[in-house]
Amino acid sequence: MELKSKVAIVTGGAVRIGQAITLALAREGCDILIHYGRSSGPAKETLASVEAIGAKATIHQADLSDPDAVRGIVPAAVSHFGRVDILINNGAIFLPGGLKETTQDMWERQFAINLRAPFFLCQALANQIPKNGRGAIVNITDARIFRPAADHVAYRLTKSALLTMTETFAQDLAPRIAVNALALGAILPPPGKGEDHLRKLSQTRIPLGIPGDPDMVADNLIHLLRQDFLTGVTIRIDGGEFL
Ligand SMILES: NC(=O)c1ccc[n+]([C@@H]2O[C@H](COP(=O)([O-])OP(=O)(O)OC[C@H]3O[C@@H](n4cnc5c(N)ncnc54)[C@H](OP(=O)(O)O)[C@@H]3O)[C@@H](O)[C@H]2O)c1
Question: Which of 22, 29, 32, 207 is in the most buried spot, having the most CB atoms within 10 Å?
């Protein structure tokens, strides 16, 4: 897909990995709806950075756990830019907890934000791309799903289902919309942990011996979007950690 002048939505596009994706799309000449939840300051700063690159953007607040708010995201982009071509489902939460510790509230919040919101955003995108149109979806999942373990159990289930959803919609939405995923390893430390955490992890657990970074994610995302013969594909960006 030629990316210049395409319209993209990036959920959680104001901070961390989402921000790197937003800026990479802007450098490719995309117009972008930068979705955010709580990060209104970073959203305005990211908007300014996108405009400094020379691309167009708008910011849009929506709580991904609220179905009504999710329903408003694609229409907001359409009312600003006239259409949407690309959806990046990046926004998510990552809660600890195995079987014993996971409460119903933790389960429901993670499934709502990490899975229900991406599902209905895919539906909304598919509904607004015309019969003979072309679009692309990239779901951001987690490479740890390739090696099941008992920690972060509800989170893992949401990200496993996101992979299944990617393959299902790749079939369902072809040939109009390519649906692919990026499965991330150690890219940025989780809240409360510093860079040291990733450095140590990279020395002990990552075959390639280095942690990832958000620009590696963004580079792979741009590569994926440019491919005309890929759908239902998941690129692992994990330095081999979960092989
Ligand atoms: N960090 C890693 O190394 C790593 C590893 C594997 C997978 N991943 C995946 O990569 C993606 C980005 O990771 P990250 O570390 O950059 O995530 P993060 O720092 O935790 O940021 C999460 C993003 O999701 C948005 N979000 C969360 N809950 C929301 C809600 N209720 N409503 C609206 N927005 C909400 C946040 O927006 P606001 O800040 O505006 O609220 C934020 O932009 C996620 O899908 C994550 O699962 C990351």
Answer: 22
Other CB atoms within 10 A of residue 233 CB: 17
In the structure encoding, which two tokens stand for residue 172, read together?
Answer: 């369902």
Polymer length in residues for the chain: 243
Fold designation for 7-237: Rossmann fold (3.40.50)
> CA 25, CA 31: separation in Å to the nearest integer?
8
The whole-number average pLDDT for the span 105-130 is 98
Positions of E strands within 104-151:
135-142
Protein residue closest via CA to atom 36 of ligand 1: 12
Among 22, 40, 93, the mutation site with the greatest number of ligand 1 atoms within 8 A of its Cβ is 93
Residue pLDDT, tens place only, 21-39: 999 999 999 999 999 999 9
Looking at every residue in the chain, the average pLDDT score rounds to: 97
Comparing 15 with 194, which gets the higher pLDDT? 15
Main-chain dihedrals φ then ψ at residue 138, nearest 5 degrees: -125, 120
Domain boundaries, the chain: 7-237
41, 44, 51, 81, 115 from 165: Cα distances, Å: 32, 32, 33, 27, 9
Tokens in use for 198?
């990733």
The reply to whether ligand 1 has any atom less than 6 angstroms from the CB of 239 is no
Nearby residues of 122 by Cβ (< 8 Å), 6 or more positions away:
87, 89, 137, 165, 169, 173, 179
